[in-house]
Specification:
160 residues; mainly beta; 9-stranded antiparallel β-sheet; 3-stranded antiparallel β-sheet
């Protein structure tokens, strides 16, 4: 990882990735995950990289070129998606009023069978750039919620 200082507060880093080679990312798009992600607790720094022309983004490890996750805002496909963060989680992440929510995506070889994890969203605090995967206990959401209904998949398929 290279860090290029541009201004006192703003900086750009270049992240080595196995999929896209070297990628330039604004320091404002790098999030700290103090406890890592489940199964990847040692990885605590990730960059949020938009996939241009699609509703998707990648959560790319800053340190490990082979580690990235495909994300999407669940509200894009499930407009009524909602949950409450506990006061402990809000305090832990320093959340006052701004928050971004993403779901991890699993792409299937048949695009219409691709799923997103609504049960364990990625919650980001854009104010202090802290993130966490939150498991929603006692929820009816699924870990493999189909992204596209049959008719939606046909109209969006070209974007994935």
């Amino acid at each position: 990882m290279y860090i290029l200082l541009i201004a006192k507060e703003a900086f750009v880093i270049i992240i080595h990735t196995s999929t896209w080679g070297d990628v330039e990312v604004s320091g404002e798009d790098v999030y700290q995950f103090p406890k890592g992600l489940p199964g990847f607790e040692e990885e605590t720094e990730f960059a949020l990289i938009p996939w241009e022309g699609t509703p998707f983004s990648y959560l790319q490890s800053v340190r490990e070129p082979d580690l990235s996750f495909l994300l999407v805002s669940p509200f894009t496909f499930v407009p009524d998606y909602s949950f409450e963060l506990s006061e402990v989680e809000k305090e832990e992440m320093g959340i006052i009023d701004q928050v971004s929510v993403y779901s991890m995506v699993t792409i299937h070889s048949q695009t219409n069978k691709s799923t997103m994890n609504l049960l364990a969203p990625i919650v980001l605090n854009p104010e202090n750039r802290v993130g966490k995967q939150v498991v929603l206990h006692q929820s009816s959401y699924e870990t493999r919620h189909l992204i596209w209904a049959e008719d939606e998949e046909k109209s969006v398929k070209g974007g994935v």
